[in-house]
Amino acid sequence: MATASAEALEPPAPPAPPDLTAAAFFDVDNTMMMGASIFYFARGLAARKFFTSADLAGFVWQQVKFRLGGRENKEDIKTHRERALSFVAGRTVQELTDISEEIYDELMADKIWSGTRALAQMHLDAGQRVWLVTATPIELAAIISRRLGLTGALGTVAETKDGVYTGRLVGDLLHGRAKAHAVRALASREGLNLKRCTAYSDSQNDVPMLSVVGTAVAVNPDGGLRDVARARGWEIRDFRTGRKAAKIGVPSVLGVGAVAGAVAAGMAYRRR
Question: Which PANTHER family match (predicted)?
Fold first, then answer.
């Protein structure tokens, strides 16, 4: 009769004790996920006939300008915000949440960078908490976080009343300096020591967030962030392939019309 080996009988290693004052913060687009989550979301909405291709043209053009220029224009962001709010106004949170679950499975699950996912798991294995920090709507960000087994997410919050979107934001887009403010607020609430925390991003726009923690890591960085990282001695991790890796956002916009429509959908939609 066969007997189990001693190795097979050894109990698994116990999990690391909770490290309550250290945590990690990850941007989503091009950091945790290949491409932009908002585009995949819009692509899913387009497939569900939430809008027409004509509604997408303006947003697509703004995305092209951003990807080629490397910086967002504040007025463009304001315009996108207003269009996005007109899109969600009157729709229920449950409807958008259910659709987001489906779209994640259909279009996002296989776009997660395995290298970045491994970095997040490293922090979890060390007993640290891990949050996503993104301009993506909080409902979608929370789904991505849950599917990856992370602690939670900070995202852009749209106001609701009785489970229905009002068409207004709670605060502003979680973007640029707003991410740094959100991370500081979370650290204060959770008792984190920011000097023991780590942040990961691909974008120069996230330098404020990267600067508030003790360890900053540039993941798949754009040209601006790569320069900042080199100047400040930050670690650089690049999981992309090809010489044009820094321009990965451009084909995301120009190469796939449906994807360009994706969350462009949510952004460029106008009620009729």
Answer: PHOSPHOSERINE PHOSPHATASE, PHOSPHOSERINE PHOSPHATASE SERB1
∠ CA 7-9-12, rounded to 5°: 85
Q: Which of 96, 142, 148 is nearest to 263 (CA)?
A: 96
Rounded to a whole number, what is the largest CA-CA distance in the chain? 75
Of 21, 198, 181, which is closest to residue 116 (Cα–Cα)? 198
Higher-confidence position of 159 and 14: 159
Contacts of 124 (CB under 8 A, 6+ apart): 130, 149, 150
Tens digit of each residue's pLDDT (9 = 90 or more) over 70-120: 455 556 655 665 565 666 778 899 998 999 999 999 999 999 999 999 999
Give the pair of three-digit tokens for residue 158: 């749209």
**Beta-strand runs (E) in the chain:** 23-26, 129-137, 152-156, 158-161, 164-169, 198-201, 215-219, 235-237
Tell me the Cα Rg of the chain. Answer: 20
- Per the document, the length of the chain is 272
Annotated catalytic residues are 27, 29
| DSSP code, position 206 | G
pLDDT tier at 57 (50, 70, 90 boundaries)? low
Cα distance between residue 263 and residue 36, in whole Å: 9
Please check whether residue 154 is in contact with residue 178, taking contact to mean a CB–CB distance below 8 angstroms: no
49 confidence band (pLDDT: 50, 70, 90): confident
**CA dihedral over 42, 84, 86, 163, signed as positive or negative:** positive
Walk me through the domains of the chain, giving residue ranges and CATH numbers.
23-59+74-249 (3.40.50.1000)
DSSP β-ladder status, 129-137 and 152-156:
parallel
Return the closest-CA partner of residue 259 out of 36, 31, 43.
43
Task: Report which DSSP code applies to 187.
Answer: H
- CB-CB contact of 53 with 265 (8 Å): no
